[in-house]
Amino acid sequence: MISTSHLSRKLERFFRLSLAHLPTPLDRLEDLSRVMEGINLFMKRDDQTGLAFGGNKARKLEFIMGDAIEQRADSIVTWAGVQSNWCRQVAAAAARSGQRAVLVLLKKPGMPVGEDGNLLLDRILGAHVRIVEAGGEKGFLELENVREYVEPVVAEEEAAGRRTYLAPVGGSLLEGSMSRPLGALGYVRAFAELLDQSRAMGFTPDTVLLATGSAGTQAGLLAGAKLLSPETRVVGVSVAGSADTVSGYVRTIAEASLEALDEDPSISQEEIVVLDNYIGQGYGIMYPAVKSAMRLLARMEGILLDPVYTGKSMAGLVDLIGKGWFREGENVVFLHTGGTPALFPYREELLGKPGD
Predict the structure, then answer these.
(1) Distance, CA of 78 to CA of 105 (rounded, Å)
(2) How many CA atoms lie within 13 A of 334 on its CB side?
(3) Residue 36 contacts by C-beta under 8 Å, 6 or more apart in sequence?
(4) In the beta sheet, which residues pair with residue 76?
(5) Which of 4, 85, 183, 302 is the most buried (most CB within 10 A)?
(6) How crowded is residue 242: how many other Cβ atoms within 10 Å of its Cβ?
(7) Predicted pLDDT at 115
(8) Catalytic residue at 313?
(9) What CA dihedral angle connects 80, 178, 24 and 299, to 10 degrees?
(10) pTM of the entire predicted model
(11) Exactly one of 33, 75, 84, 238 is catalytic; which is it?
């Protein structure tokens, strides 16, 4: 183990553009802890990072935008789904740093596509938006699967004389212009912040639970826990990929993060916990337990979750508590990764019939 101050010094070698309001709060959920008997429940409020409605991508983008500046890029190209939290925060970060954001938004059948939620904010933030139909079963995470949509846009930017930085979706995999695990380093740093806060409150987290998609947030937290608090378990509730697939991403990114910090990069399979039984019918598709979890937090704690990420991870947490998955008296931290703008395109599903 190393100290949080030692880790901070290691992270200082990477240029970071200040974008987020840090530290974000760590709150005890008093009412929910009483209802969920047997555990002490806390929430790390990364929905309050402050960049364009907040969310976990702000921490990642601090390092990624720093890298783009060092590469003297004036155009940031990235891709994701139409209602992407990542793309919304890329647009905001580019606006802050005086760069051009070009977003390739991939539309699959059944996903909301109205000028609402994150897409509305992309427009307001001045991003250059390209919406393309993307059929088939391939995911959006790997550049190889979206090359046909993304590479022509990069070529257009470069033909116009712009120096382009291709940022991988979610700031996670080492693809495009990113050769180091910069997004995950934002969450190595976040784990140190969380640990300092929790110890000041008189506890060390036994479990940190979060929604996991592109795996960079979970990988960064896992790397941070390995360095600072090996007894803390990091649990990812997958919102899209299988446990095997996401676990592979987590291991690759976590080991790259440790290597970048000149630490032992080995991660055992036992250290990687990904649960894939709360995905439902697929990414972005809400189901009753998600709606119930969102209402529970809203009506007991006054906290808003989203249908795509945090609603699913909270549905998972509620189910796991009911099944006795945690030890008696365990200190569990739920990482709120943001995503609030995604509420609005789902208004009809959330409201249901009058009186629901």
Answers:
(1) 9
(2) 29
(3) 318, 321
(4) 101, 165
(5) 183
(6) 12
(7) 84
(8) no
(9) 20
(10) 0.95
(11) 84
Specify the pLDDT at position 340: 92
Per-residue confidence (pLDDT) for residue 37, from 0 to 100? 81
* Tokens matching residue 218: 């979970």
- Report the distance separating Cα 68 and Cα 242, nearest Å: 32
Closest of 337, 276, 271 to residue 58, by C-alpha = 337
The CA R_g of the chain, rounded to the nearest whole Å, is 19
3-state secondary structure of 278: coil
- Evaluate whether 235 touches 9 at the Cβ level (below 8 Å): no
Q: Which residues contact 180 (CB under 8 A, 6 or more apart)?
A: 14, 67, 174, 256, 260
Low-confidence ranges of the chain (pLDDT < 50): none
Question: If DSSP codes are grouped into helix, strand and coil, which group holds residue 340?
Answer: helix
Using H for helix, E for strand and C for coil, what is the string for 73-113? CCEEEEEEECCCHHHHHHHHHHHHHCCEEEEEEEECCCCCC
